[in-house]
Write a structure and sequence with these properties.
The chain is an alpha+beta fold and 259 residues long. Strands 4-7-11-15-14 form a five-stranded antiparallel β-sheet, with no helix packed on it. A four-stranded antiparallel β-sheet has the order 6-5-12-13, with helices on one face. The protein has a three-stranded antiparallel β-sheet with strand order 8-10-16.
């Protein structure tokens, strides 16, 4: 079964010889389409093991075993903190820590509250059960490019490429974000709007629905709650969904020589 972004079609029949191709050219015929099958772009058996372990946590009360705390400091711009937050789907300047979606939409942003150098005290408490580094290898399609050379003058972007080598994944990843005092009132207004409109929250790349909106496990494996009194926004994994969150992809550089 084809899965866009995960599997790729590959020819599985024998290659046509040069002689056969020449005969087809003389006969003004075209080569038949080869039989194809879908093969993995990459293999990461350790990821399945990690996810299976995450599934054992389904239904249990959320009590993370590990946690880290950091503070967004003054003197730095929001763009210095990149957690994938620019992918909320809106075209505004700066970098996004909090995203709010309209009713029925995850990636279409209705409004946003930005964190910038004017807001000086945002504390982020990251919680998780376990963190693991998983090796990944290319699928059967992998071609050894070391034997090839680019033409002289080839763009530099083609001469040095990167390939993924490892995944960093976390089990039952969540956040507790203490909203800066100067933003608490605005944030509270946005939260109420989202809940009333059955819209969505998006924080550090995580999405969860507000109000009574329907959702799928793939779209929103986390739940969100906001305590106005303490200014704490909590994004916690839902108890009915055991997931492994991709935190980082480790890549290695390789060069292709020129003639």
């Amino acid at each position: 079964m084809a899965q866009v972004g995960y599997n790729m079609p590959a020819a599985v029949r024998d290659l046509i010889s040069v002689g056969q191709l020449l005969n087809m050219e003389l006969a003004v015929t075209t080569a038949p389409d080869p039989t194809t099958a879908f093969i993995p772009l990459y293999n990461a058996p350790g990821y399945k093991t990690f996810v299976d372990e995450a599934q054992t946590k389904v239904g249990s009360e959320y009590e993370p075993a590990q946690s880290k705390v950091f503070t967004i400091n003054t003197g730095k711009e929001a763009s210095d903190y990149n957690f994938g937050q620019t992918s909320v789907g809106a075209s505004h300047g700066g970098s996004w820590l909090y995203g709010f979606g309209a009713s029925g939409a995850v990636v279409t942003t209705k409004s946003s509250l930005q964190q910038n150098s004017a807001a000086t005290s945002v504390s982020v408490h990251i919680t998780y059960d376990s963190l693991s580094v998983i090796d990944i290898t290319p699928g059967l399609w992998n071609v050894d490019v070391s034997q090839y050379k680019l033409e002289k003058g080839a763009p530099a972007s083609l001469q040095q490429l990167v390939k993924p080598t490892q995944l960093v994944v976390a089990n039952r990843l969540g956040y507790e974000i203490t909203i800066a005092a100067e933003q608490a009132e605005s944030f509270d207004t946005y939260c109420k709007t989202v809940v009333e409109a059955s819209g969505s929250f998006r924080n550090f790349g995580m999405t969860s629905w507000g109000g009574s909106a329907s959702y799928t496990e793939e779209e929103t494996p986390h739940s969100a709650s906001y305590d106005r009194a303490t200014g704490i926004l909590k994004m916690a994994p839902r108890d009915d969904t055991g997931v492994a969150n991709l935190v980082e992809v480790v890549r290695s550089k390789f060069n292709i020589l020129t003639t």
